[in-house]
Design a protein that fits this description.
Shape: elongated
Number of domains: 2
Strand order of the largest sheet: 9-12-13-14-15-18-19-20
CATH topology of the largest domain: Lipocalin
CATH class of the largest domain: Mainly Beta
CATH architecture of the largest domain: Beta Barrel
Order of helices and strands: HEEEEEEEEHEEEHEEEEEEEEE
Radius of gyration: 22 Å
Number of strands: 20
């Protein structure tokens, strides 16, 4: 009995950062391999079309953690939404009663987005992973913001091209984050990586976003970063301190426009477009 209590404590701590626990499943016979797991992922159908919702179920005596790549749920049975069309992965981590963690992936091909999800997931990540680079002109600079009339969301005072950003990086002793540099957003795990103009990885981390407008008719949401940054994301008038949060000015399939307020009150703006394959 003491052994089972200790294992349950471990399982709960393992899943502490996930969505609220709905069902811990049973603690019984030892499951030794993935092949022994009685687990299913069943798509919700719309006629003959596979929708972007699945029903997950595990009847084995294990503690389950299901993920759609974006959110994780500690439960043996629930429904998950999938955020983009095409081939998607639903993952299961199962903790057995002897403390072993088994992992199993299920592939679901989403035919249609029947159930609404924020479109920004597809804007950022495309069909699962999407790489962005600088707009060809007027890609970075500063200007006024919502404290002025009219509201501004573009570089308008000091305006740089990608080659200008390259020169700025060189002069400030920064990695070459100018022309040819890229940043990639990946849906599974909500990951983001930054590469310099030579393709070398500068940083890798995670991102999330909140599409709540700022209330000033300026930004439409917020991009948050952890252990990484956007291209040339430094406060140039504030000791080159990197930002970890950006205002989203605009995002769609073809453009990502961001803004941030510097320590001295200056507003900075970035404009990115999808990188060519």
């Amino acid at each position: 009995m003491k052994k089972y209590i200790n294992l349950l404590v471990i399982a709960l701590s393992m899943f502490a950062s996930c969505e609220p626990i709905l069902d811990r499943g049973g603690i019984g016979d030892v499951i030794n391999s993935v092949e022994q797991l009685e687990a299913t992922v069943t798509p919700v159908m719309n006629g003959s079309k596979t929708t972007n919702k699945v029903v997950v179920n595990c009847t084995s005596p294990v503690v389950c953690q299901w993920s759609n790549g974006v959110k994780t749920y500690s439960t043996n049975n629930t429904e998950l939404l999938l955020f983009i069309p095409g081939s998607q992965t639903v993952s299961l981590k199962a903790m057995t009663n002897d403390g072993k963690v088994l992992e199993k992936n299920f592939t679901v091909n989403v035919d249609e987005m029947t159930f609404p999800v924020p479109p920004e997931y597809a804007y950022f990540c495309g069909t699962g992973e999407k790489t962005w680079t600088w707009a060809e002109t007027k890609c970075f600079g500063n200007g006024h913001a919502y404290a002025w009339d009219p509201v501004n969301t573009y570089p308008e005072w000091w305006i740089l091209s990608p080659s200008d950003v390259t020169s700025q990086c060189s002069g400030k002793g920064l990695p070459n984050e100018g022309a040819g540099a890229t940043m990639t957003f990946t849906l599974v795990g909500m990951k983001m990586s930054l590469k310099d103009a030579s393709g070398n990885v500068i940083s890798s981390g995670n991102f999330d976003f909140d599409m709540t407008p700022d209330g000033h008719n300026w930004s439409i949401g917020t991009l948050n970063l952890k252990n990484t940054n956007i291209l040339f994301g430094y406060d140039l008038n504030g000791g080159l301190v990197p930002w970890t949060q950006y205002s989203i000015m605009e995002i769609n399939d073809n453009v990502l426009r961001l803004g941030a307020k510097g320590a001295d009150g200056t507003y900075w703006f970035w404009v990115f477009i999808p990188a060519e394959d």
